[in-house]
Structure formats: C-alpha cells, structure tokens
Amino acid sequence: MRTTIILKTASNYLLPVLLVFSVFILLRGHYLPGGGFVGGLIASIAFILHSFANGLEKTKELLIVHPGFLLPVGLAISFMAGLAPVIFFDMPFMTGLWSHDTVAILGSVGSALFFDIGVYLVVNGVTLTIIFTISESA
Amino acid sequence: MRQTDLLSMLTAILTGFIFSILLVFVGRFFKGKLSILASIVPLGLFLYFFQFITPIANDEIITRSFEWIPSFGVDLGFKLDGLSLLFSLMITGIGFLVFAYTSSYLKGHEYLDRFYGYLSAFMGAMLGLVLSDNMITLFVFWELTSISSFFLIGFNNTNPASRKSAMTALGITGIGGLLLLASALLLNNITGTYSISEMLSMSEAIRGNEFYAVAVFLLFGAAFTKSAQFPFHFWLPGAMKAPTPVSTYLHSATMVKAGIYLLMRFTPVLGGENIWNYTLIIVGGITMLYSAIHTLFRTDLKGILAYSTISALGILVFLIGLGTEEAFLAAAVFIIVHALYKATLFLVTGIIDHQTHTRDITRLAGLNKIMLPVGIAGILAAISSAGIPPTIGFIGKELTYEATYHSDTIIIISMIAIVLTKILLLYAGFVAGIKPFTGKLPDEHQEVKAPDPIMWIPPVLLATLGLVFGIAPFLVEGALIKPVVTALGGNASEIHLALWHGFNTIFILSLITIGVGTALYFLLKPSEKLVAAAARYNAISPENILNLINKGFVQFSSFWTNFFQNGYLRNYISIIILFLVVIVGYIMIGNTRFVIDYNSLSKITVYEITTTLILIAGIFYTVFTESRLAAVAAMGVVGLSICLIFVFYSAPDLAMTQFSIDTLTVILFVLVLYKLPKYLKLSDYKTRVRDGVLSSIFGLIITVLALEVLSEPVSKQVGEFYAANSYVEAHGKNVVNVILVDFRGADTLIEISVLSIAAVGVFGLMKLRLKMRDRKRYADVSLDKENKEQ
Fold first, then answer.
1. How far is residue B15 from each of residues B53, B80, B92, B155, B193, measured CA to CA in Å?
2. Cα B117 from Cα B498, distance rounded (Å)
3. Is the complex ipTM more than 0.90?
4. How far is residue B248's CA from residue B432's CA, in Å, rounded to a whole number?
5. Among A37, A123, A134, whose Cβ lies nearest the Cβ of B766?
6. Percent of chain B topping pLDDT 70
7. C-alpha distances in angstroms, B704 versus B592, B674, B707?
8. Which of B652, B663, B671 sits opposite A138 (nearest CB)?
9. Distance between CA B263 and CA B284 in Å, rounded?
10. Helix (H, G, I), strand (E, B) or coil at B627
C-alpha cells in the first residue's frame, strides 16, 4: 500500500490526539454521550490509521505488547469492579460504589468508571487483535 | 449397620478407580519388575469379598446405601447377596490371576502402566455393576465397563483393525446401555423407585402394567448387546483384537456376563411371564447353536474361543429363559464352570501366542514337549468344557440337560438344540485345549522356549479348581450355588450337587454327547477350506447388514450436512433469512392489521429526505457496481446515512458507536478484499434476482413488523424507571451508559467476554493457517536447496 507523505505526517500527530479524544469520550460517558465501548472503538481506529500510514510493524512496536493482552487485563478490571462490593462491603455483585468527594474534571468517581475502563480496554483489544491478525494474513 | 462396614463397601468398589488414577502418577514404578505388585489390589479385594461367604451362605443379605441425588431418588445403594457375591469373587479372583499373568505377558511393554490403569478401572466398574441396587447407579457402572472395554480392545491403537473393533464394541454395548437407562426410567415410572430391592416387592404390579413388555424388551436390548446374543454377537469376535489377558478377563469371564447378571437380577422382578421366558429361550437357543456351529469354521484359536464363549452365553440365556429352579441351579453352576475353563483356555492360548507367535490351530501341535504344565491346564480345561467326569463341567452339563428335559415347553427342539450345542462345544474345547498339545511338534516350533512360571501358574490353578470342584462339589454348593438360586427366587434347600446321578436318560445323552463330539474332533480337522466356506455367507451376516445400515446413515447425514452447511457464507445467510421470512411471515399473515396511525408519526424534514435519498442511492450503487471495493465503500455510505438518522432521532450514543463500527467494517472489508481480483463478475443474473427477491421480502416483513410495533400501545414503565433512577441511584446523567455499566452491567460483562472469545478465535484460526503456509513455504525452500545441491 503506497501512502502519501501527508497522511504519514498527519497520522503521527493524529494518533495522540485521537487517543486523548477516546479517553475523553470514555470519561464523559457517565454524563454525556460516550462511554467505554465507543471510546475503545475510537482508540482502535487511531491505531489502525497509524498502521495504514506507517505500516503494521511500526504500530506494533509502538504498542509494545500484543493487543491480545488487553483482553485479560480489561476483563479483569471490569470483573474486579463488579467484585469489589462483594469483597469489601459484603454487597451484591455489581453494586455501584461511589466516592463521597468529587474529583477534579471527573466529578464523582465510582466503580462504574473502572468497569467502563475495562470495557474500553477489551473493545480496543478485540478490534485491534482481529484487524491486525487479518491484515497480517492478507 | 456399623459405620466401618458402610465405608468398607464403598472403598472396595472405588479401589479399582483410585488405583487407576494413582497409576497416572506412579505408573512408571509398575512398568518394570515391580509390575506383579499391581495384582495385590485384586487379591486384597478378593479376600475382602471372601469373608462374606459365611454370612451370605446363612441367607444374610448385606445392603449399604449412601445418599447421592435424593431429589431424583438416585442413591449409591449397594446390595450383596448370593448372585453379587458369586460375580464379585469371579471378578476379583480371575482379576488377580489376570493381573499377575499380564505382568509377564506384556513384560517391558511401553504402556504397561496404562494397561493396568484400564484393567483396574474396569474391575471397579464391574464390581460397582454387580453390587448396585439402584438402577441409575447400575447404568453408570454399566457404561463405565463399556468405556474401559473400549480402551482395552483398542489398546494396540496403532492397528486400524483394533481401533475399528473397539468402536464397534463401544457402539453396540453403548446403545445397549442407553436402552438400560430407558428401561430404568420406565420402571421408575411404573414403580416410583429406582431401587431394585423395592421393585422386587412390586413384581406383580409391574407385570400387570401395560408398559411391562416395553420395559422388558428395553432391558433385553441391554442384556443381549452386552452378552453378545444373536444378532448383536459380532462385536465379541472383533473384541479379540485386544491383548489376550483382556479377552480372558472381560470378554469371557466377567464383562460379557454382565448381561447374564442383569437378566438374573431381574428374573424375580420381571420374570415368569411368557414374553420373558419365550424370548429368552428363543434368542438364547439361536445364539448357542448358531455360534457353536461357527466354531467349526475357525482356525484362529481366539476366534474359536470367542464363538464358543458366545455359545456359552447363549446357553445361560436359554437356561434363565426356562425359568425353573433346576434351570437356575444349572445356570449358577454353569457360570462357575464356564469362567474356570474358558479363562484357562484363553490364558493357555495367550501363552501359545506369546511363545510361538501364532494362533493358527493348523500350525500348532505337540507343544506339550516344551510347556508341559500349560498342556496339562489346557487338557483339564478341555475335559471340563466337554463335560467329562470327574470335572465340574460334567455336573454343569448334567444339570443343563436335566433342566431342559424337565421343562414343560418345546422339549424336543430344546433338547436337540442343547445336545448339538454341547457336542460342538466339546469339539471347540478339544481343538483349543488338546490339539496344540498332542501329536508331533512341527519343525517351525522346535526352538520355542518354555514360558515364565508367572504365566503358566494362573491357568494351571484355574484348571485344577475345575477338577477339585468336580470331585468335591460340596465346596461350592453351600457357599456359592445355593445363595445364587435363593437370590433368583428359588428354593435352595433341596439342592445337592453330585457327580453320579444314576443311569438314566440324561446319562445316556451325556454319553452320546461325549462320543459324537470326540468322533467329530478326530474326523474333522480345522482347515482354511472350512474358513473360506463360511466366508461365502458373510454377505447375509448380521455384522454385514449392520455395516450397510451404518454406511447408509453416514451417507445420509453427510448429504444433509452438505446441503445446509456447504461452507459458503452467502448460503448460510440465505437459509437463515429464508427461514425467518417463512416463520415470521406465516405468523404475520393472520395477525397483522396493516393500520398505520399517521398522527403518531413526526413530520418529515428536509434533512431526512436528503439522507434517505443518499441511502437509496448507496444501496443501488452497492448492488450494481462491478467493483468489490466500490461496493464496500457504498455500503459504508449506507451505514453512515443510518448514523445520521440516529442523530435526527436523538440517539447520539447509538450514532457514535454505529459510526465507529461502520468505519472499522469498511476497513476490515478492504483488508480482506485487497488481495482479491478487483474486477470480477460476482454472481450471475439468476442468483442476483433470487437474492434480490429474498431480501426485498425480508425488508418488507421487517418494515411491516416495525409499523405493527408502532401501532401497539407501548409500555413505558421500563424506560421511565431507568430515566428516573439513573442519576439518583447510579450517579449518571447519560441513561444509555448507565444502563450499560450499571443497571445491566452483568450483561455487558458477559458481552465483553464473548467479544474476547471471538477475538481469540479469529487469532487462532488465522495464525494456524499462517503457520501451515509457513511450513509449506519452508518445505518448498528446503526442496529448492536440495534440487540446487543435486
């Protein structure tokens, strides 16, 4: 695939911007449109755009670990977010826990946020794993 | 009931399984010289069961019960009566000898530990089978014996014939096991219990039930398949592919008698009706004569023994069918007789095979010069099998004749059948036990070495027992025979076993049997010609017919599968959509009102019209373009238009997600299509029209469905609940996201798990293919190198 110098240069700047945007979408999800699912998709689109411009190998180097590793990590975070009330407060699985004080920018922080972070990682991992695997074999 | 007793019974049954599992870890210690130590397990069990002889002989019945699944009436109920004790002693006693024998027979075998593992698992299963008082437990152990038998028959797993035999045996006995389960369920339905002891008291009610015949035939199905009755007998000769210790243990002395055990166990519950008796007499009669005749046409020693075993099982079924006390007595004695002589003959055959590497009877003679003790065992067993005094075989045969003679049904046919069978069995016994040890030693066997004592002691011991029990029948009379007859519902007090019964009709028949059989042995020599003569009728043998049915079944199912699952994604989608169209369309035709409430619809805006036009253009472009890439791009346009519509109707979350997904889908498509030729006629005109019609109908149905939903009064309760509680309970203002991560968070958790599994699946599939391609590429490279070097 031949890529233009414009896309190549742009993608280097777009990757961090898109990633920040995806985190933004993830964090605002609780109050405004957004969330872990769509955030994860945007993050993976950012990486895929980078791989189109610079080649798959470069993107993989950037990622350090294989995107497949995001799956167990994300699942574990989500599961632990659900398990936390059971372990610490003897409440039913997936009960929402909330901090009393609000945090700057985020507002009130709760277990749902960690759950959403897990979703974000899993979705990102799934998309990248599938697309990387297929584009490697194509 | 003492607690220790309670535990010891369960321990005894589980010992085989525990030892089998232990062998996985410590198996390597039992491969070498220590392998003989494995036989301590069955010996210990034998001694354990031996101590029950006295209480059982005093008409005691020992029952133990553990709760297992009380809600279904399934418990681990065990019952030790005369019948169970006889089988338990046979299983552990012959088991001990076979374990010891194996240590020499398979000395140095790579998988000897595995072999012991299977054998002891089988022993445990068999003990559980004969001790179970609960039909479900009985079924479980029944299937376990089939499974362990499968592993043992297929022990030489590099041999295709051996694998095939194992599959056949598992298939036949497995089906039988399912029939047993069906019978258990039916009997449970009639009596309300799975306990066999409790069914005993309800015998009258069961026999009067309209489903009695069905229950009986299901039970027969199980017994006949396991005990190799005609026409299910053919798996047993095939099972002879197993190493000889297995044939001895499973396929002559114990497992094949499980069917007999089942029939005996249920005689007091289900027996006594004509349908029970006549079926058993006819099936047993056909089996015993049919397979006895078969022994004439065999030259493989194990083949001869296999058919004579089937014949003996037929005799037992026949005797149970006669249903008189005399017949039960004869059956009880014959079980002991057969176990003793047939196990001996199998062990002897194993020794011959092990030392001379042939089982072809036409090439065997004069081996007594090399292995005299083995010869003595063989000849003793042959005499017992022939029913010549003073062996216990003689008593068994006399009792069999007497029982047949005194039965009140079709005496003449039965008499002829049983005498003919006995004559042929005498011939078979002589061929297997005497022929290899008489005459002149052939030149090819001059160098044959004598076997290990560990190998010849077990058959000599068994053969001697046959003689001892014949001379002193009182040794088994009170201890084993009487309790069995009692367990079958007979009156055992009058029984008195003796060699000499007086000079009567029975004795004359015995003389005739021995005379004719011996004459047959000297006149008829086993030869290849006879084998070939029998092979001509193979086409109509039950085995062949079953194979044909089997083949037809496989052909039909592969046709069926190929029709629906032909590997083309477009076909799957067509079938799924067609199915939906037919089902949903059928329901809708009668129930749709086709009323559109125009008042409930919002006004159409200019943005919507424009978007819809773009959408329609995109669809047409997708359908009519000749380029795959252009079609994919146009699909993207369709997807984005739908996103816009979501935005118009205030579903920003949905629109965002759909937007990202659509982008990724296009990327995926492009990646896959990138390698395919750019321009190609994708499908012909006919297919396109067909697909077009199908998808139009589908679209129409979905549209009508959507309009129908609109005209229904919608319950807004759920939506209102989420909207009201989203901020109060879950601190979130975005209801959609709160539903995803909080209200229905568990769903999301499972969804992301499914997504992960899908990703792992894609990764596995693609990488596997890559590796294979790499391997091929490397292979090609190395081939090139070789070519260049040459």
1. 20, 17, 12, 22, 28
2. 41
3. no
4. 14
5. A134
6. 93
7. 8, 38, 5
8. B671
9. 12
10. strand
Separation CA B153–CA B166 (nearest Å): 5
3-state secondary structure of B74: strand
Q: What is the mean pLDDT of residues B45-64?
A: 83
DSSP B630-671: HHHHHHHHHHHHHHHHHHHTT-HHHHHHHHHHHHHHHHHHHH
Report the residue of B646, B654, B657, B660 to disrupt the A interface, i.e. the one with the largest count of A CBs within 10 Å.
B660
* Residues of chain B contacting residue A71, judged by C-beta atoms under 8 Å apart: 756, 759-760
B-chain residue closest to A47, CA distance: B664
- Domains of chain B, by residue range, sit at 1-271, 272-526, 529-561, 569-742
The answer to whether A39 faces chain B, any CB pair under 8 Å, is no
**What SS3 class is residue A131?**
helix
- Inter-chain touch A125–B758, beta carbons under 8 Å: no
Q: Are strands B62-69 and B74-80 parallel, antiparallel or unpaired?
A: antiparallel
DSSP structure string for B327-383 = HHHHHHHHHHHHHHHHHHHHHHHHHHHHHHS--BGGG---GGGT-HHHHHHHHHHHH
For residues A42 and A39, give the distance between their C-alpha atoms in angstroms, rounded to a whole number.
5
Given a cut of 50, is residue B2 above it in pLDDT? no
Is residue B1 scored above 50 in pLDDT? no
On the question of pLDDT at B618 being above 50, the answer is: yes
* Secondary element (H or E) of residue B62: strand B62-69
Q: What is the mean pLDDT of residues B617-636?
A: 86
Domain B569-742 grouped into CATH 1.10.1740: no
Judging contacts by C-beta atoms under 8 Å, the chain B residues touching residue A30 are: 731-734, 737-738, 741
| Model pLDDT, residue B682 | 62
Mutate to test the interface with B, among A14, A32, A109, A126 (most CBs of B within 10 A): A126
Q: Do B752 and A119 touch (CB under 8 A)?
A: yes
Give the pLDDT of residue B556. Answer: 92
- In angstroms, the CA B238 to CA B433 distance is 22
The Cα–Cα gap between B186 and B179 comes to: 10
Task: Give the residue from A21, A48, A95, A133 with the most B CB atoms within 10 Å of its CB, the best one to mutate.
Answer: A133
- CB-based burial of residue B163 (10 Å sphere; 0-12 exposed, 13-18 middle, 19+ buried)? middle
**Look-up: residue for tokens 């010549």?**
B388
Most confident of A98-102, B438-442, B543-547: B438-442
Is pLDDT at A102 greater than 90 in this prediction? no
Furthest-apart CA atoms within chain B: distance in Å: 117
On chain A, the residues whose CB falls within 8 A of the CB of B651 are none
Cβ atoms B193, B136 nearer than 8 A: no
Structural domain spans, chain A: 5-137
Q: Angle at Cα B306 formed by Cα B236 and Cα B223, nearest 5°?
A: 45
- Distance CA(B439)–CA(B437), nearest Å, equals 7
Q: Which of B162, B137, B124, B153 is nearest to B41 (CA)?
A: B124
Phi, psi of B64 (to 5 degrees): -135, 140
**B180 falls in which pLDDT band (50, 70, 90)?**
very high
- pLDDT above 70 for B432: yes
pLDDT tens string B516-563: 888 888 887 777 777 777 777 766 677 777 778 888 888 999 898 888
Chain B within 8 Å of A89 (Cβ-Cβ)? no
A31 touches chain B (CB under 8 A): yes
Nearest to B402 by CA among B301, B534, B497, B265: B497
B752 closest CB neighbour out of A31, A74, A135: A74
Residue B103 pLDDT > 80, yes or no?
Answer: yes
